[in-house]
Amino acid sequence: MRRNRSSLVSDLGFLGFLVLVFICIVFIAGSGNDYIQNIIILNIAFILALVTYFTTVTAGLALNLAFIFGYGFFIVYQTVSRGETIGISTYFWLIMVPLITVVLWIFTSSSRELEAENERLKKTTANLATVDENTDLRNSISFQKDASLFTGISTRYGIPLTLLVIKVKYWSEIRRLIPEDQLSDAIYDVSQLSQSSIRTNDALYLLDKEEATWGLLLFTDREGAKIVIERIKYKLQELNEHEFSGKYKVNLGLKIGAVQYEAETIENPLDFIVQTKKQLEYDV
């Protein structure tokens, strides 16, 4: 409702600005001898409106106040020194110039409100999203939800649960060597490699896209996890020899850490990740 109101106000502000500009053009066209003077004042009105657009309404209104005093002083000078009468154009511009500024400010403030609302919605959507848009993998938010469920199953039924954390070695250096448009492809290829090495009831998560880090929740013990680790590294070696070296001009290496879930030592899903990441230090 609030978004619709802001959109309506923005549209009305823009429409009002166009109407005022049209009125000014019609007025200038029929101004006769004051044509040049009216064109100059219209340009001043646009300048004041642009200042308001790029700054604040306070700055715009302050400049409008200065314009009113300056223009008023100019009219008084002409009236006293030349004996000219105050014409309708004087009243027209004293009203129209501030009005153009106010209408443009209404349009600007509503547009900025819509932009801010759009940014908030984007952030909210990103925070609520549970799947990475490029790899279709579940992310860290999904991991926290699933890990709570899996650890509960592990504790209740006595099924061993192990978390693998996989990270590309020297990723910060590699991403400088790989073109930007290929980074997502590299992450996707490693994701597919990991996905093909696990069973259908195991779960793969993209924990950190910027650091190229994945998580694997396996219903197995440490010994079973070692088999998966060896399988992943063997497949990576094959891909390095036949595909990755030609596609990305570098060989990708992986660091893999594994921790079996223990309710006494692991307090929550984040603690599960932290403890597993520590094991990466031992995989060189």
TrEMBL record:
Keywords of this entry: Membrane, Transmembrane, Transmembrane helix
UniProt entry tagged with the keyword Transmembrane: yes
Top-level taxon in the UniProt lineage: Bacteria
Pfam families noted in UniProt: GGDEF
Gene3D superfamilies assigned: 3.30.70.270
Entry-linked SUPFAM superfamilies: Nucleotide cyclase (SSF55073)
Membrane-spanning intervals of the chain: 12-29, 35-54, 86-107
Hydrolase keyword on record: no
Domain (GGDEF): residue spans on this chain: 129-278
Name assigned to this protein: GGDEF domain-containing protein
Organism the protein comes from: Paenibacillus auburnensis
Taxonomic placement: Bacteria, Bacillati, Bacillota, Bacilli, Bacillales
